[in-house]
Write a structure and sequence with these properties.
Layout: E1 4-8, H1 15-23, E2 41-46, H2 51-59, E3 63-65, E4 68-73, H3 88-95, E5 100-106, H4 122-152, H5 157-174, H6 189-194, E6 203-208, H7 219-231, E7 234-238, H8 240-247, H9 252-261, H10 268-279, E8 282-288, E9 292-299, H11 304-311, H12 313-317, E10 319-326, H13 327-332, H14 336-341, E11 346-348, E12 358-364
Parallel strand pairs: 1-4, 1-5, 3-9, 5-6, 6-7
Antiparallel strand pairs: 2-4, 8-9, 10-11, 10-12
Helix pairs in contact: 1-8, 4-5
Length: 366
Amino acid sequence: MGFNCGIVGLPNVGKSTLFNALTQTAAAEAANYPFCTIEPNIGRVSVPDDRMAKLAKIAGSAQLLPTQLEFVDIAGLVKGASKGEGLGNKFLSHIREVDAIVHVLRCFEDGDVVHVEGSVDPLRDAEIIEIELILADLESVEKRLPNMEKKAKGADKDAKAQFEIMKKVYKVLSEGKPARLAEIHADEEKEFRILQFITAKPIMYVCNVSEDEAATGNDFSKAIEEKAKKEGAACVVISAKIEEEISSLESDAEKQEFLETIGLSETGLARIIKSGYSLLGLLTFFTVGPKECHAWTAKQGSTAPQAAGVIHTDFEKGFIRAETISSDDYIKYNGESGCKEAGKMRLEGKEYITKDGDIFHFRFNV
């Protein structure tokens, strides 16, 4: 099960620098000119989880296997991208394939780094990209509506449902608003997702500030935080340069010491990864034993059999029950035996909804 976040933004806002730090590689060339990223770079990163080391220590696990997210560094967007300006067509095709959008905004002044719009204004920059994405969605709907209307007049129930959704989306897009603001009912969610509107994807704004403002933010980042709050979007303040410097340090102790000297408790990257995980509506469950402590990713609301299917399809098909312990109880009562004695191990059936931090031992029959 792969989940990915596309890193987008205008040229020269720090996207590739951020991507390099995220993946701790130099895979993306960070250069001071537009379009240095043409093909999207892809990197998988581990999701930080303090519980894993504690669980592994108690179980004597030989190996730790954290859950992961994929980040895609997509070419910088410019005005007119929806009409193919710059690398617009490639940008739009790549962004349609990601599950969520990480929108990097330049919130720092630096005369040595050119800004494609000539000045620093993250609210304007956010609007430029949003407008281009809205225009791309609008063009897509206009092309698809006539054909969908013909299908809807026939016996195709799915086409009828999609046609009604597309009309709702067309209305909000025509008003210059993203597709996510359309009134979509619960029974329409599945069809809405199938239609793959770019502006329906969940969004996280990443405010890239200067090194001396990483802990406090600035007026630019505060304006974006306010915007995110109004939209129900996520927002993280980071300094891409600091993150790149931290990622080059070898030991965790060095990284922690560096963070403390600049007034931070955790890296901006850790906050981005956690926020991205939350943005996608994901949770973590564990399988724990002497061989390995393995973190797995499931969608919030997944049943126990669906969680089992993340590990192997046979586990879901032949699901019988799940021996279940919460990770908090596992840590508190020092492992499986202590949890059994305290009555904290449960047998859960097919209807059980997986909770974040559950430790499962699946019983199945194939």
